[in-house]
Amino acid sequence: MTPYEETIAKELRLWQRQMQRKPSAANRLAKATQKWINGLIPEKIHEIITTTIKQMTRGVLFGAEFITPLPAPVTSLEEQEEEVRRRISFYKTAGAAEGGVAGAGGFWLALADFPLLLSLKMKLLFDITACYGYPIDDYRERIFLLHIFQLAFSSQERRREVYLQIVDWEEKSKLLPEDIHAFDWRTFQQEYRDYIDLAKMAQLIPGIGAAVGVVVNYQLIDKLGKTAMNAYRMRKGVGK
Question: Per-domain residue ranges for the chain?
Answer without folding.
Answer: 3-235
